[in-house]
Structures are given as C-alpha cells and as structure tokens.
Specification:
This protein is α/β, with parallel strands linked by helices and 287 residues long. It has one domain (2-165, 198-223, 252-271): 3-Layer(aba) Sandwich (Rossmann fold). Helix content is 39%, strand content 17%. The protein has helices at residues 13-22, 34-42, 55-65, 82-102, 138-152, 178-184, 200-209, 228-239, 260-266, 275-285, and strands spanning 2-6, 26-31, 46-49, 69-72, 107-113, 157-163, 165-167, 194-195, 197-199, 216-220, 226-227. A seven-stranded parallel sheet has the order 3-2-1-4-5-6-10, with helices on both faces. A two-stranded parallel ribbon has the order 7-9. Strands 8-11 form a two-stranded antiparallel sheet. Helix 2 (34-42) links the parallel strand 2 and strand 3 (46-49). Helix 1 packs across helix 7 (200-209), helix 3 (55-65) packs across helix 4 (82-102) and helix 8 packs parallel to helix 10. The radius of gyration is 18 Å and the shape is globular. The chain starts with a strand and ends with a helix.
C-alpha cells in the first residue's frame, strides 16, 4: 500500500514509519529540511519536502505520490502554543484533506485528542460531544479539534484517533521534557482532575492498526484514567523528583476517556495498559 505520512518526524511519526515500512508499505514521509530527509531515509521511507500551509505545493506533492492512505500526525508540540496547534488543525488539515482528495486517496487516519469532551461524570466515551461551549483558552483547542475532525470526515473513509496525553521518548513527559523540568521544580501541583495517558509506542501501533479499521472516531488511551493526586506523585517518584504539592479542584473537562470501544470493537490492546508501569519503564530508559 502507498501511504503518505504528514508529521513523519514528530514523536509519533518517528515510531510509526518503521512499523509501516516493516509491513511492506511504500511510505512517503513529509519533511521540511535536510535533517528530516536524512531521518526518514534512514527509516526506509521516501522523503517528500512540503509545507502543510502551502496548499498548491501540497497538492502537487500528493498527486506525485498517489497515496492510497494519508496519515495526519501533524502538531506543534515543541512549545505550548495553542494558536499554532489550532492553525495546524484548521488550515493544515483543510489543505491536507484537499490534497488527499485531489490525489485520489481513499482514506485518512487523523490524530485528535481525548481531553476535549464536555464536562461530566466518569471517563468519556466517543458518544460524548466535544466541549464546544468551553471558555477561552480551552475553546481555541476545542474549535481546532472540531475543525480537524469535520475536514477529515470528508474523505471517503476516515479514522479519527483521539489520543490520550502522550508520554515516552520525545514528549513533554520524557526525562528531558518540559513537564519533567517543571515537576523537578515543584511547579506542577497534584489536583483532582482526571487524565488519560498514552505511550507514544501505543499511539503509533494504533495508527498502523487503523489501516484496517472502519470509519469513525475512537479513543486511544490506556486502561487507567487517573486524578493528578495519583499519577503525579508516581511520575515524580519515577523521575526522582520531589513530592508534588496538592491543590484541590480540577480543570474543565478533566474527566479522562474510555478505551472500551477500541478494545471491544477493534481488538486494540495497549503495550502499556497503565501509566503506573509505563512511567517507570519510559523514565528508566531515558536515564
């Protein structure tokens, strides 16, 4: 199968490319610059230099590649920039969908997130609406997610992967990541807000599996949504950081998400079912 991956050099893309190549697919990897080209060539993929915000260039490149499937893993995670992520989800996805359709691609697998559901009790399933009435700054992210999912759904087939909060190599929660630094400095407080986590390897494996999944939206999270009062002390301990301070309360929509659909309907099983062992393993590997 011919597959075009946007976001090929990101934290998920780096894990995903070798999985796709190993399965025998011809993988076109969108890059920007010489370093990106060298990285994807080393993984056995074909580099395609393009900018997701240059619509005409993107259409021309996808027409040349003629992919059957487009995998959208684009984010702006190098800094905590809500506006840039929203721009990628809105304008970038719009351009990528238009280019995919022009090239005759039949399916898109798109990265979304699982913490944009309406507030409520217990972990959210896919039938819970997005939090479209959220106040700013949350609304900026919700609107970007909604735009991404609407655009991707215009494809003949589309699988929307609502990922949990990513941890593992290259993420904010890696030993050298931004969150790790803040936890060491006791800048992050343990609240009652609930989070669903996901190791980057499980995110990549879900994208690979989604090549065979039917159209629809699916939460890709681990088995144990947890309040900050549980996961943050465990993360700090695995990191060798001081015990975090407690702060009562929780943010809007911090309810976690359920992976019941992914497990029941698609047979998806995470390699890291819980952040409890996942933190220990990923942080030990980062020493």
């Amino acid at each position: 199968m011919k597959i075009f991956v946007a976001g090929a050099t990101g934290v998920i893309g780096r894990s995903l490319l070798p999985l796709l190549v190993k399965e025998g697919h011809t993988v076109y990897a969108m890059v920007r610059g010489k370093a990106g080209k060298e990285a994807v060539l080393a993984q056995g993929a074909v580099p395609v230099e393009a900018d997701v915000f240059d619509r005409d260039e993107l259409i021309a490149q996808l027409r040349g590649a003629e992919p059957e499937v487009v995998i959208h893993q684009l984010t702006a995670l190098s800094g905590y920039n809500l506006e840039e992520n929203a721009r990628i989800r809105k304008q970038g996805t719009r351009n990528l969908v238009d280019a995919a359709r022009e090239a005759g691609a039949g399916k898109m697998i798109a990265q979304s997130i699982s913490w944009m559901y309406e507030p409520g009790d217990g972990p959210a399933g896919e039938d819970v609406p997005l939090d479209l009435e959220a106040p700013e700054p949350r609304k900026t992210t919700v609107d970007g997610v909604a735009a991404l999912e609407r655009a991707a759904a215009e494809m003949p087939e589309s699988v929307i992967l609502r990922y949990g909060l990513l941890y593992g190599p290259g993420t904010w929660y890696a030993r050298d990541g931004a969150v790790a630094d803040k936890v060491r400095g006791r800048e992050v407080r343990a609240t009652e807000g609930v989070t669903s986590f996901l190791h980057v390897e499980d995110a990549a494996r879900a994208a690979l599996a989604a090549l065979e999944w039917p159209s629809g939206t699916v939460n890709i999270v681990d088995d144990e949504p947890a309040p900050g009062t549980l996961w943050l002390p465990a993360y700090a301990s695995a990191l060798g950081a001081p015990e975090p301070e407690f702060q009562p309360g929780q943010g809007r929509g911090e309810r976690g998400a359920s992976n019941a659909k992914a497990r029941r309907d698609y047979g998806w099983e995470p390699l890291y079912p819980s952040w409890r062992e996942g933190f220990k393993t990923s942080l030990a590997q980062g020493k």
